[in-house]
Amino acid sequence: MIVLSRGEEVIAALTKYCDEHGIHAAAFHAIGSVDRVKIGYYDLKKREYFFTEESGEFEVASMNGNVALVEGRPFIHAHAVLTACDEGGRVLGAHVKEAHVAVTLEVFLIALDISLSREYDEEVGLKLLKI
């Protein structure tokens, strides 16, 4: 378990944790809250990511991801479903590029005893997971 605190940036904190603990392959899920996020999607036709920044408090209903090596360093790949903490309660779901913890984020990370890496795939234009 990893417990992140208010203000920590999720992707950077998980990358640092994995780097410091020699974790090169893992799966994780998390719950908690965030208040600033950069989320988006990959447009296959244009072969690029499009991101939007959202602010305000969001409950992390679900965050899932994995850790694999890219150029010898841990790379965090995460997706999340977020619910706005307001009367509208809108729901967002997307690839997470950046997320800042609002109160806490409880991360259940399972290190795997396998080799995972990401390698560039010319057909789709992304670094895809290789086992």
Q: Which architecture per CATH?
A: 2-Layer Sandwich
Total number of beta strands? 7
Contiguous uncertain segments of 5+ residues: none
CATH superfamily: Hypothetical protein, similar to alpha- acetolactate decarboxylase, domain 2
The top-level CATH class is Alpha Beta
Could you give the distance between the termini? 24 Å
The total count of helices amounts to: 1
**CATH fold-level name:** 60s Ribosomal Protein L30, Chain: A
Query: What proportion of the residues form beta strands (DSSP E)?
Result: over 45%
What's the shape?
globular
Mean pLDDT: 97
Element order, helices and strands?
A: EHEEEEEE
**How many strands, what sense, and barrel or not for the largest sheet?**
5 strands, antiparallel
Using only CA atoms, what is the Rg?
15 Å
Alpha-beta classification: mainly beta
Query: What is the helix fraction of residues, given as a range?
Result: under 10%
Tell me the number of structural domains: 1
Protein architecture, described:
The structure is a single chain. Strands 1, 2, 3, 4 and 5 form a five-stranded antiparallel β-sheet that branches. Strands 6-7 form a two-stranded antiparallel ribbon. The protein is globular. The protein has one domain (2-124): 60s Ribosomal Protein L30, Chain: A (2-Layer Sandwich). The protein has one helix and seven strands. With 131 residues, the chain is mainly beta.
